[in-house]
Structures are given as C-alpha cells and as structure tokens.
Specification:
The protein is an alpha/beta fold. It is built from 15 helices and 13 strands.
C-alpha cells in the first residue's frame, strides 16, 4: 500500500465507462500530481427516471436508485434524480450517504475528499464528511455552480454550509469565486485560484501581420458546432455584419465539427455574412497551426466556466477577445492582448474585433512579453500541478 496521502475525488466531469467523452480537466490534474498523492475517483452520472417515477418522486420522495461499476480510476456511479433541480438536495444528500458507505468499504481511508463543484458534488461530499469525519475540499466551476445557485435560491443556506465547511477551495476563475461569495459569503478556509490545465501550453512566439506580407490574416473562433447557441455564433454573425457595413475587413474562420443538422443550423445563421467561413473540424496539430497563422481569437460565449481554448490561443501567439463576467474574466484585467466584451452586444464584439485587427502587431508584441513571464507559468501544467499539490498538502 502506498505511503502517499490518499485523496478521494467526487466529480461529475470525469471520463468514465458511463460517459467517456467528458472533459479531461480533472483527470489531467490527477495525472499531473499522481507522484505526490494516491488519487481515486467516484465519477457520478445523473440519469432521469421515467415520467411516472418523477411524478411519484414529487409526491413522496423515495430512496436513491444507484448503479456502480469499477474502472481504472475508481468507481463510476449512475444515480436517478428528476430533471430541473427537483429533489436536488434530497438526492445529493442520499448520494452522500452512499458515499460514506463506499468509503468504509475502501482498503484505505482517504485523508481528504474533494468535491469538484460546490452546488452538486459539494452537497454529497459534505454529507459524507459529516458521517465519516474526513475533511473535504471543493472546486468551484463557474457556469454550473452559478447557474444552479441562481435557480435554487431556496438552497442558499445549504450552499453556504457547503462552502463554509470546506477545508480548502479551488475556484477555477476569479469571476466564479466573486459570484459565489457574493451570494453566500467568504469562508474562513483558504482559496487557491486554479486555472484549468491544457496540453497546448508551450509558448509559440506571436507572428506579426507583416510576416505574411499580406497584412491581417483574419480572426478565428473554435468550438464544436453542437454548442453554437452557447458559444454565441449569432452574436458573432451580427458583429461581422456590422463590420462589413462599416467597410472593415475582419474575415472570421469558425473551426469546429458537428452533425449535419448542427452544421445546417450554423450555416443558416451565417448566411449572407460573407466574412464568416465555417471551416470544419481540425485535429490538435492543425488547430495549433491555424492559430499560429491568424490575427487573433474571438469567442464571446454566453456561458463558459473557464474556456481552455482562450489559454491555448494565447500560448499559440494570438490576442484574445473574451466575454465579460465568464470564461477567463479576472485573469487578464488590463492586459493589452486580451479584450473583454459584452457578449450580448454585437456592437461591443464588433468594436473589439476591429481593435484587434487594427492593432494586431502591437498586441502581439505585448503578448510575446507575457508568454515568457511568471504570470504565464501559472497557466502551464507544471505551475498548475505545483499549486494544486501544495494546497492539498497544506490542507491535510
């Protein structure tokens, strides 16, 4: 048995046999620190019961229906819970009861439990901590946590207890931390700002527009077409139309694949906007090359917990346009190579696009300085891993 500290992670965002295509952020954090901790995972998946079962649950809540199976990183769990936040706390407290029993069955008692969202996993982890006496930590993921907390205002006391009972808190972004603490107060426990890690974190010096001999080479945006509404393709199209009417040249390539129906929906949105091209999917190397050869990156998402692609664009040498109040907001305040916009205002997006195109070389000069700074190291995997590990060691 390992002498390393034992950490149990509870996450709904971990690739597992039930849903293998989830984001790899939490898994990457574990891989980066596996030489310092013995990590194990309870990967949770919510499934909705049938309509009759939902009706019965509304009238009189029953017990938790749950299936579990082992996988490489630990245990994958599927539990039944009604949609739209019905019985949200009830089911998660029941999940916490199961989690406490699961912990008792493990060969080794964890030194710390980490719930990887406050408003979901946090409720279950707090319950398990109360039963087992094991301290817990939390990560805060802006989009999910703030959305649930705004919808379930009746659970403010629960969310407050979850946050204030944690030994340590890892907000992924400054704006998420501010949004959560405005609602439920600042806890006594330390919080450590933890950017999400990406494999595309090697700096590539920005390429000036003059390097191609043709001036501006246009902007790019990157997202799967399935998410075109949340990524605000309509806002991009409106902004591009405004620039066309003003005679501003700002060609925009939208990179990302999707199903035929999704592509058709996107084609309908950009129809008549000659400056926008739906380029299709690219692999990681192709994407890196496309970023290298562009003027800048723009993605005015309506909702975004972090947005790894913004950091990937910066390390590929691209100035970025990002949405205020979400994504990487709070990390690049006053940075001359990062322009915040009101994602719901096409004029704001258009102005930022024009500014980037007009000032590409100067913005890239400032970005080149940042790429070799200590600030940039905070977004690279070694720096993220060290911060994550040091905070956990301090907490236990």
């Amino acid at each position: 048995m390992s002498d390393l500290p034992s950490i149990l992670h509870v996450s709904g965002d971990f690739p597992d046999p039930v849903e293998p295509h989830k984001t790899k952020v939490i898994r990457t954090l574990l891989e980066l620190t596996k030489h310092r901790f013995e990590h194990s995972v309870v990967s949770i998946n919510r499934r909705s019961p049938g309509k009759l079962a939902i009706l019965k649950d509304v009238i009189a809540p029953g017990g938790l229906h749950l299936d579990a199976q082992d996988f490489e990183y630990g245990t994958a769990v599927s539990y039944e819970a009604p949609p739209r936040g019905i019985r949200h706390r009830t089911r998660l407290v029941q999940l916490g009861d199961w989690l406490a029993q699961h912990i008792q069955s493990l060969k080794r008692r964890p030194d710390l439990i980490i719930g990887h969202k406050l408003a979901i996993e946090g409720i279950a982890v707090r319950r398990a901590s109360q039963i087992t006496g094991i301290p817990y930590a939390l990560s805060i993921q802006g989009d999910s946590d703030t959305k649930i907390m705004s919808v379930r205002r009746d659970l403010k006391g629960e969310f407050q207890s979850v946050l204030h009972g944690a030994k340590l808190v890892f907000p992924f972004t400054p704006w998420a931390w501010n949004a959560v603490t405005r609602q439920v107060g600042v806890p006594d426990a330390p919080h450590v700002m933890l950017p999400c890690p990406t494999d595309l974190d090697e700096p590539m010096p920005p390429q000036a527009s003059s390097a191609s001999g043709t001036g501006s080479r246009g902007l790019i945006s990157v997202f799967h077409l399935q998410s075109y509404k949340r990524k605000n393709l309509a806002g991009l199209a409106s902004a591009a139309q405004l620039l066309e009417k003003r005679g501003v040249s700002a060609p925009l390539s939208v990179i990302g694949g999707g199903e035929p129906a999704e592509r058709s929906a996107c084609e309908a949105i950009v129809e008549g906007v000659s400056s926008i091209t739906l380029t299709g999917p690219m692999d990681r190397e192709q994407l890196r090359a496309a970023m290298r050869n562009a003027s800048g990156f723009v993605l005015p998402s309506l909702r975004e917990s972090f947005g790894l692609v913004f950091v990937e664009a910066l390390f590929a040498g691209l100035p970025i346009i990002y949405p205020k109040g979400t994504a990487v907001d709070g990390y690049f305040d006053d940075a001359p190579f990062a322009l915040p916009v009101d994602a719901r205002d096409p004029n704001s997006i258009a102005e930022a696009m024009a500014t980037l195109v007009d000032n590409e070389d100067q913005m890239k000069l400032e970005l080149a300085k940042w790429q070799t700074s200590e600030d940039a190291k905070a977004f690279q995997r070694p720096g993220i891993a060290q911060k994550f590990a040091a905070a956990i060691e301090s907490a236990i």
